[in-house]
């Protein structure tokens, strides 16, 4: 891999000579006779370091000659994130282009220095795009070759309005009959944010990862027909956030939590079936009536323990169906983008349908200045088991925003 500048905290970097390919078993024992930990076999020391963060493991390289390269054999987590640089870019005190170059060089040096045959996790969080494709492809290849279990690429843009071409997950590593195809069978968790994934790539990921339990895809511009189906899927947690998909089909017998958010003005076709273990659902729709997303889940609503809704409301009245009794629902959160001309009383039908609800949070996000209007009354059945009520962004009387939290200790 090519080098580059710096990136991240200086103490987070390996020493300059850690790229030497010497095994720790050939290093001298610790010269300090009171260092009992240093006398342990190198396999045990590497196992201990594998439990630390990358930053903590690299710090041990200054202890002695023997510890100098031990960190590079760890099988734990390699996490690359630079929040200080991100804040500097947001404050216009640092150049995004320059910092990208430094960040890429940092990741390259660490991965070049790493001598272990496996890693548990690789996380890369920075504002990168398709111009960095050459390097990111190498990082993904290195992680898969080391039988990575958890892979996260979070390339969320730091600056609003910055909309370049996103990096596309490399199909050459997963498509059948390609020379570069790698083994994805060890993957347990895959998180891709602002990484383009096509329908074909998604299909190959699901068919190539028999033990994949968690899949998160946020911001992909190339997904349109999403199909997550198969009786042999191990998938337990699925979250899709997109503004382009037209079809969304899920059939996963082991699925426990499901989330999908659509920013498009086009209502997609949604089909949810064969999800007997589903207990937690997140639904987001900024343009469509929430009922479009609730109806496909109608047969599963009775088994839900947690429901999270995110929607727009800009008129008086809610298009919400009459809910069946939700005896298992304990946790309900609702984020509503609204204006003062809309009525929120339609929310009560869902609250009343959950007689054993214990936690209810309502967050209001206003689009217009507050205007005084007449209060409305509602005849509602009290929820006797409700313990926590949070209302954020409430407006009424002389209050202009803020939040309130109530606890029922009875």
Task: Please give a handful of descriptors for the protein shown.
410 residues, 13-stranded mixed beta sheet, globular, alpha/beta, 24% strand, three-stranded parallel beta sheet
Report on the architecture of this protein:
By secondary structure, the chain is α/β, with parallel strands linked by helices. It has 8 helices and 20 strands. It has helices spanning about 40-50, 55-60, 85-90, 95-115, 135-145, 200-210, 290-295, 350; strands spanning about 75-80, 120-125, 150-155, 165-170, 190-195, 195, 215-220, 225-230, 235-240, 245-250, 255-260, 270-275, 280-285, 305-315, 330-340, 360-365, 390, 395, 400, 405. A 13-stranded mixed sheet has the order 1-2-3-5-7-9-11-13-14-15-16-17-20, with no helix packed on it. Strands 8-10-12 form a 3-stranded parallel sheet. A two-stranded parallel sheet has the order 4-6. α7 (about 290-295) links the parallel β13 and β14 (about 305-315). It is globular.
């Amino acid at each position: 891999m090519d080098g580059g500048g710096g990136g991240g905290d200086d103490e987070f970097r390996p020493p300059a000579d850690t790229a030497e390919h010497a095994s720790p078993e050939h290093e001298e024992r610790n010269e300090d006779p009171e260092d009992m930990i240093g006398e342990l076999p190198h396999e045990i020391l590497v196992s201990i370091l594998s439990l630390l963060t990358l930053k903590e493991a690299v710090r041990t390289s200054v202890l002695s000659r023997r510890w100098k390269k031990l960190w590079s054999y760890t099988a734990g987590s390699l996490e690359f994130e630079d929040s200080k640089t991100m804040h500097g870019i947001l404050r216009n005190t640092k150049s995004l282009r320059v910092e990208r170059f430094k960040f890429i060089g940092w990741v390259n040096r660490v991965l070049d220095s790493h001598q272990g045959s496996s890693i548990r996790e690789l996380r890369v969080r920075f504002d990168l795009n398709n111009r960095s494709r050459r390097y990111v492809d190498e990082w993904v290849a290195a992680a898969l070759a080391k039988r990575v279990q958890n892979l996260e690429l979070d390339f969320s843009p730091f600056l609003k309005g910055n909309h370049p071409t996103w990096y596309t997950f490399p199909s050459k590593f997963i498509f059948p009959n390609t020379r570069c195809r790698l083994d994805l069978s060890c993957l347990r968790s895959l998180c891709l944010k602002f990484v383009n994934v096509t329908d074909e790539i998604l299909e190959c990921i699901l068919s190539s990862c028999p033990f994949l339990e968690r899949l998160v895809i946020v911001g992909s511009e190339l997904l349109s027909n999403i199909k997550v189906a198969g009786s042999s899927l191990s998938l337990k947690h699925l979250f899709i956030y997109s503004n382009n998909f037209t079809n969304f089909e899920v059939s996963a017998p082991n699925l426990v939590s499901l989330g999908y958010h659509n920013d498009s003005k086009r209502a997609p076709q949604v089909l949810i079936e064969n999800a007997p273990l589903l207990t937690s659902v997140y639904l987001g729709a900024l343009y469509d009536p929430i009922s479009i997303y609730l109806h496909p889940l109608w047969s599963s609503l009775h088994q839900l323990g947690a429901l999270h809704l995110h929607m727009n409301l800009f008129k008086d009245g809610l298009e919400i169906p009459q809910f069946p009794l939700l005896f298992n629902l304990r946790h309900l959160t609702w984020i509503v983008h609204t204006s003062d001309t809309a009525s929120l009383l339609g929310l009560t039908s869902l609250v009343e349908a959950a007689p054993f609800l214990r936690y209810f949070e309502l967050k209001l996000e206003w689009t217009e200045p507050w205007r005084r209007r007449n209060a409305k009354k509602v005849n509602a059945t009290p929820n006797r088991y409700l313990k926590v009520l949070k209302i954020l962004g409430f407006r009424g009387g002389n209050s202009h925003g803020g939040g309130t939290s109530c606890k029922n200790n009875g």
